């Protein structure tokens, strides 16, 4: 846990220090803190600081909600997008680009994405019912994800010109480039509320190790647990998608990777995964700047490229353990 | 002292009555065996008593607030679910959850009761093993230890000895009998009539959602009821080794 915290801090500093402006790390950091009003201070405060902060926030959100979702469903293959939040947030964002709201209204895109997440989550809750089981929740989530995906494709299909389509596709790949402090302030309250909601799950998720019936008999209220899970995930993933696009594999791989380190306890895994997610997104965001600085490599593409083989390795290891 | 009292508890699922007017009172010191053919309503009775199912009628347990109920009764469902590869010790510690405030670390008292539960189920050598990698019988014992660690006056267990070898079946029944003797109340559902006859202080026989007999094993396991409810004929002898009960043949 301490090691993870130190890793996140180190990566955060690295994310601040590395960039195309070509200033040394110490020079950059002192410009950030000191603030001599020069161009470097401007770069640090307006470009790199929000980018690094969003990296931590988005990563922590994805890791935390992934761990919560896996704990609740008692399935290591669950991920935060399962209940349709990211797909419906993406649909909102795509609509914002398509209708031009994104270009004309300040923060129009993230606001529309949040609205999409809200509508999608509302539909999932309504579909799954207040007292349903985890199965109805998954089914409702899959249905809403599919619907949102289909509508996103429809918008792309009907897109009037290739530039709009291009913009939509690039947005959907997920990125932290060119974000401002306004994005941070938009996402932070929602993410904060979501983190608090998800943190209250620790005890319930631990009890769920013994199954829903045994957990209920131990004083865990299943309906409340579920509502906190859905609400928390909607807040953090909705806000993350709104400011950064869809970034896959973090919520799936990070909890899986850290599970052995916390003795597989789902409650402890929540915080470990939040730190792990922040570290992974920061590292990936540094990597996109270092590997191909001039080609604008998208963050979501990189996390999937790294995440998928990592996941294959984990499956291979699991298979060997089972044999 | 009465630990559990049910009054005309009834459950209908999809308009079909699965539990009808169950009235039952269990006191400290009793090991109650809940017997009956498949589908007789044994699990439903226990889940409704715990308030895990919507039911008509009254259950003293279901009327308690969730936290208070968890300190009064431990529940072992029939499905022996262990979702994550946690250690045996961690799993048994989950039984202490109702005694801990949110986010609180286990105190010395919690560790002590986990130690007692592990010792009682002879699980000390397995303490640091991963629970999901144990054999089915070992997992069953770990889950019993988890319920013991909850240290409640009442334990409800749904077929706790199914799938155990004869030695552990007997040992488990003796553990429950020991708990009852030390002032707990234990309600177990089981299909093994010989073990029920031998170890339970009282049997409750169910058939098609109703309680059809309630009393001492000898009084409940009459040839007529066995024929009517279980469709079997059994040999029932009092010996120096205690009561011997053995179903012999099916009668239809």
From TrEMBL, chain A:
The chain crosses the membrane at residues 47-69, 81-101, 107-128, 135-156, 184-205, 225-258, 270-292, 299-316. One of its GO terms (molecular function) is transmembrane transporter activity. It is found in: Cell membrane. Residues 1-23 form the signal peptide. One of its GO terms (biological process) is siderophore-iron import into cell. One of its GO terms (cellular component) is plasma membrane. Keywords: Cell membrane, Membrane, Signal, Transmembrane, Transmembrane helix, Transport. SUPFAM superfamilies: ABC transporter involved in vitamin B12 uptake, BtuC. It is a multi-pass membrane protein. Its main location: membrane. The keyword Lyase does not apply. It comes from the Bacteria. InterPro entries: ABC_BtuC-like, ABC_transptr_permease_BtuC. Belongs to the binding-protein-dependent transport system permease family. FecCD subfamily. PANTHER family: ABC TRANSPORTER PERMEASE PROTEIN MJ0876-RELATED, FERRIC ENTEROBACTIN TRANSPORT SYSTEM PERMEASE PROTEIN. This is Iron complex transport system permease protein. It comes from Tranquillimonas rosea.
From TrEMBL, chain B:
GO terms for molecular function: ATP binding; ATP hydrolysis activity. Keywords: ATP-binding, Nucleotide-binding, Translocase, Transport. It comes from Tranquillimonas rosea. It comes from the Bacteria. Residues 4-233 form the ABC transporter domain. This is Iron complex transport system ATP-binding protein. Part of the ABC transporter complex HmuTUV involved in hemin import. Responsible for energy coupling to the transport system. InterPro entries: AAA+_ATPase (IPR003593), ABC_transporter-like_ATP-bd (IPR003439), ABC_transporter-like_CS (IPR017871), P-loop_NTPase (IPR027417).
């Amino acid at each position: 846990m301490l090691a993870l915290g130190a890793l996140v801090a180190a990566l955060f500093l690295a994310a601040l220090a590395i960039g195309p402006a070509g200033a040394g790390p110490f020079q950059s950091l002192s410009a950030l803190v000191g603030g001599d009003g020069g161009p470097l201070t401007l770069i640090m405060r307006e470009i790199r600081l929000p980018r690094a902060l969003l990296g931590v926030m988005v990563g922590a959100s994805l890791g935390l909600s992934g761990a919560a979702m896996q704990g609740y469903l008692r399935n290591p293959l669950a991920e935060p997008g399962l209940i349709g939040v990211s797909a419906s947030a993406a649909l909102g964002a795509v609509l914002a680009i398509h209708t031009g709201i994104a270009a004309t209204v300040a923060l129009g895109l993230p606001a529309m994405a949040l609205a999409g997440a809200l509508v999608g989550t509302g539909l999932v809750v309504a579909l799954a019912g207040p007292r349903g089981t985890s199965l109805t929740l998954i089914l409702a989530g899959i249905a809403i994800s599919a619907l949102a995906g289909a509508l996103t494709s429809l918008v792309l299909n009907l897109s009037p010109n290739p530039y709009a389509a291009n913009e939509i596709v690039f947005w959907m790949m997920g990125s932290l480039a060119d974000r401002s402090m306004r994005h941070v302030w938009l996402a932070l309250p929602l993410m904060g509320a979501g983190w608090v909601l998800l943190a209250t799950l620790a005890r319930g998720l631990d009890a769920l190790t013994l199954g829903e019936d045994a957990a209920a008999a131990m004083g865990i209220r299943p309906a409340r647990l579920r509502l906190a899970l859905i609400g928390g995930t909607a807040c953090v993933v909705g806000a993350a998608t709104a400011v950064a696009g869809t970034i896959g594999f973090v919520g799936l791989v990070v909890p899986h990777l850290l599970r052995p380190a916390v003795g597989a306890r789902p409650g402890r895994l929540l915080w470990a995964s939040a730190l792990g997610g922040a570290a992974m997104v920061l590292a990936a965001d540094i990597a996109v700047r270092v590997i191909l600085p001039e080609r604008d490599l998208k963050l979501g593409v990189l996390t999937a490229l790294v995440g998928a083989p990592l996941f294959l390795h984990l499956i291979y290891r699991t298979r060997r353990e089972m044999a | 002292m009465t630990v559990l009292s049910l009054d005309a508890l009834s459950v209908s699922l999809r308009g079909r009555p699965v539990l009808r007017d169950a009235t039952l009172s269990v006191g400290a010191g009793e090991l109650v065996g809940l017997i009956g053919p498949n589908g007789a309503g044994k699990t439903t009775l226990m889940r409704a008593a715990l308030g895990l199912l919507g039911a008509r009628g009254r259950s003293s347990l279901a009327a308690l607030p969730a936290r208070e109920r968890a300190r009064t009764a431990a529940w072992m469902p029939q499905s022996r679910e262990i979702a994550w590869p946690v250690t045996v010790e961690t799993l048994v510690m989950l039984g202490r959850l109702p005694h801990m405030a949110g986010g609180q670390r286990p105190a010395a008292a919690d560790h002590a009761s986990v130690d007692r539960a592990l010792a009682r189920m002879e699980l000390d050598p397995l303490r640091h093993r991963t629970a999901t990698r144990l054999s089915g019988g070992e997992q069953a014992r770990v889950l019993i230890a988890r319920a013991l660690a909850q240290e409640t006056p009442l334990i409800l267990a749904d077929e706790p000895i199914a799938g155990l070898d004869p030695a552990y079946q007997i040992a488990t029944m003796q553990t429950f009998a020991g708990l009852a003797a030390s002032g707990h109340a234990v309600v177990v559902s089981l299909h093994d009539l010989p073990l029920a006859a031998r170890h339970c202080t009282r049997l409750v026989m169910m058939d098609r959602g109703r309680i059809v007999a309630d009393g001492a094993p000898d009084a409940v396991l009459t040839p007529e009821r066995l024929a009517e409810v279980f469709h079997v004929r059994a040999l029932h002898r009092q010996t120096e080794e205690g009561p011997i009960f053995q179903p012999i043949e099916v009668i239809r």
